């Protein structure tokens, strides 16, 4: 999936886990943007205040992330 097509609130699948796209932070270097996701499966792993957020760069999103079937 092209990272530029992601919009906040979109449901995506990565590695069999459903994630919600939060935001994309651009970088000075092309292709190095940071994409923020929230996954309920990761919530609380790093303590009670952990919200289950994770980041991926554009290359990983392009190779591993797909649109969730319910969102299509």
Characteristics:
10% helix; SH3 type barrels; five-stranded antiparallel sheet; 72 residues
Structural account:
The protein is mainly beta and 72 residues long. It has one domain: SH3 type barrels. 10% of the residues lie in helices and 36% in strands. It has 1 helix and 5 strands, in the order ββββαβ. It has a 5-stranded antiparallel beta sheet. It is globular, with a radius of gyration of 12 Å. It starts with 10 loop residues before the first strand and ends in a 5-residue tail after the last strand.
Write out the strand line-up for the largest beta sheet, numbering strands in chain order: 4-3-2-1-5
CATH architecture tag: Roll
General form: globular
Annotated CATH topology: SH3 type barrels
Give the DSSP E fraction (strand runs of 2 or more residues): 35-45%
Tally of separate helices:
1
Count the domains. Answer: 1
Question: Main β-sheet: number of strands, strand sense, barrel status?
Answer: 5 strands, antiparallel
Number of strands: 5
Tell me, what is the CATH class?
Answer: Mainly Beta
List the helices and strands and how they pair.
Blueprint: E1 11-14, E2 17-25, E3 34-38, E4 53-57, H1 58-64, E5 65-67
Antiparallel strand pairs: 1-2, 1-5, 2-3, 3-4
Short description:
This protein has 72 residues and is mainly β. The protein is 10% helix and 36% strand. The radius of gyration is 12 Å and the shape is globular.
């Amino acid at each position: 999936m092209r990272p530029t097509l992601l919009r906040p609130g979109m449901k995506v699948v990565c590695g069999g886990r459903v994630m919600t796209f939060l935001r994309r932070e651009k970088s000075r270097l092309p292709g190095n943007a940071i994409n923020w996701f929230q996954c309920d499966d990761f919530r609380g792993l790093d303590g009670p205040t952990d919200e289950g957020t994770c980041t991926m760069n554009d290359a990983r999103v392009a190779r591993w992330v797909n649109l969730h079937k319910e969102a299509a």
